[in-house]
Amino acid sequence: MNISVTVNGKSYTRDVEPRMLLVHFIRDVLGMTGTNIGCDTSQCGACTIHMDGMSVKSCSTLAVMADGSDITTIEGLAQNGELHPMQKAFWEEHGLQCGYCTPGMIMASTKLVENNPNMSESEIRHGLEGNICRCTGYQNIVKAVQSASKEMAGGD
């Protein structure tokens, strides 16, 4: 099947197998390997991207379902050479360890904050339940989301 998508601001038209997962399209066809494959069952969130303004697990989405969509991957989150506030906060607050979950965690956290910039710690933890980190214990991830939330809202 022929699909057309916009990924990180660039348009692509490609032929894909009808059963190809979006994560494989992004990684293998487009060569954007920042989106990770963790579990292949939509449990871990390592494959989280933004599609048409929503946080989506790309391992449970067929590439053909993305036809006509606007997609942002971790590679497209930074703008004009500047890290997105969420990327910067994960760096500054040490919200990562091995880094495998980090792209998906950042993508999920970004949409979480965009949809509710004034979340409590409990709301952040609940909002990120679909993203698993096996290394950090989540405390610094929560701190990073809180820090980025302030910057994204225009405060310091």
Note down, in words, how this protein is organized.
The chain is α+β, with helices and mostly antiparallel strands and 156 residues long. It has 2 domains: 2-75, Roll (Ubiquitin-like (UB roll)); 85-152, [2Fe-2S]-binding domain (DNA polymerase, domain 1, Orthogonal Bundle). Helices cover 33% and strands 15% of the residues. The chain has 5 helices and 5 strands; from the N terminus they run ββαβββαααα. The chain has helices at 22-29, 85-92, 102-115, 121-127, 139-152; strands spanning 2-7, 10-15, 48-51, 54-57, 70-72. The chain has a 5-stranded mixed beta sheet with strand order 2-1-5-3-4, with helices on one face. A hairpin with a 2-residue loop joins strand 1 and strand 2. Helix 2 (85-92) packs antiparallel against helix 5 and helix 3 packs across helix 5 (139-152). The radius of gyration is 15 Å and the shape is globular. The N and C termini lie far apart (48 Å). The model has no long low-confidence stretch (mean pLDDT 95).
Q: What topology, given as strand order, has the largest sheet?
A: 2-1-5-3-4
Provide the structure class. Answer: alpha+beta
Q: Given this structure, which CATH class of the largest domain is correct?
A: Alpha Beta
Instruction: Estimate the strand proportion.
Output: 5-15%
Number of DSSP helical runs: 5
What gyration radius follows from the Cα positions, in whole Å? Answer: 15 Å
Share of residues in helices: 25-40%
Mean pLDDT across the residues is 95
Cα separation of the termini: 48 Å
Tell how many strands the DSSP assignment holds.
Answer: 5
Low-confidence stretches: none
SSE arrangement, N to C: EEHEEEHHHH
CATH architectural name of the largest domain: Roll
* Major sheet description: 5 strands, mixed
Q: What is the general shape?
A: globular
Fourth-tier CATH superfamily name of the largest domain: Beta-grasp domain
Number of domains: 2
**CATH overall fold name of the largest domain:** Ubiquitin-like (UB roll)
